[in-house]
Amino acid sequence: MRLSSPADHETVKSCIAFRAKEILVENVKLYFEASGHGIRYQQRIELVNLDQSVLIVYLDQIPRQELVEASERGIFFSITEMQFLQCIITLAGGQQQQPFDSIRSHLIYNWLLNDKWVRRWGELWNCNAIEHAKTEMKSYWRWRLGEFKHFSLYSAGLGSYP
User: Fold this and answer.
1) Taking the CB of the first residue and of the last residue of the chain, which one, N or C, has fewer CB atoms within 10 A?
2) 69 CB-near residues (< 8 Å, 6+ apart)
């Protein structure tokens, strides 16, 4: 599972990966629930023919992790816990397992709270995330936009360069 955060580009969405461990799973029905700051979000997920290959589901109805409030009252985030509810699994051959709920997981934001934060232009900025992005861009430009086949992720169809 990967929940998107403010450090991600706006096009990055939260997602979760599923796969069957050993045997084919005919059908999976469940609800993913995330909650925080007194608000609950749910998304229904239904999967068919789940095998050992990874199946990725984007969590369009779940907001990204945000720092909602940092004040004398405390520090509050958009998502603080998550759980799978009403999980119904049907194995190959139609054998249905008993419905169950997963344990509730609590998110710990120590990675976020150890960062350097500055308020500018009416917004709260994570300076460490900005520095990380600058380092990534330097790498990108240093290797000349992936021009050299040795460093390129996308080498198909590229001709040789003088």
Assistant:
1) C
2) 37, 75, 76
